[in-house]
């Protein structure tokens, strides 16, 4: 029997939020290339936002949330 690898999309929160963002946009006048570009831009901005988000614990130690 062959092993089956069922990868799912979105596979992480950044991809999920990027897809959710695009689903709520009017893409009717865009080409597939433009939609792909919008997805990549949203993905990059969301990834950047998570990377720059930091939390401080009760001891005042800053932790980066990825």
List keywords for this structure.
single chain; 66 residues; mainly alpha; 2 helices; 48% helix; 9% strand
For the secondary structure, the number of strands is: 2
Low-confidence stretches: none
How many helices? 2
How many domains in all?
Answer: 1
Report the span from N to C terminus. Answer: 38 Å
Q: What proportion of the residues form beta strands (DSSP E)?
A: 5-15%
The biggest sheet, with number of strands, parallel, antiparallel or mixed sense and barrel status, is:
2 strands, antiparallel
Helix and strand content put the structural class at mainly alpha
Q: Write out the strand line-up for the largest beta sheet, numbering strands in chain order.
A: 1-2
- Averaging pLDDT over every residue, what do you get? 84
Q: What is the 3D form?
A: flat
Q: What is the H/E order? A: HHEE
Radius of gyration: 17 Å
Portion of residues within helices: 40-55%
Commentary on this structure:
With 66 residues, the protein is mainly alpha-helical. It has one domain. It contains two helices and two strands. The chain has helices at 13-23, 32-52; strands spanning 54-56, 62-64. It has a two-stranded antiparallel sheet. A hairpin with a 5-residue loop joins strand 1 (54-56) and strand 2. Helix 1 (13-23) packs across helix 2. It is flat and about 50 Å long. The model has no long low-confidence stretch (mean pLDDT 84).
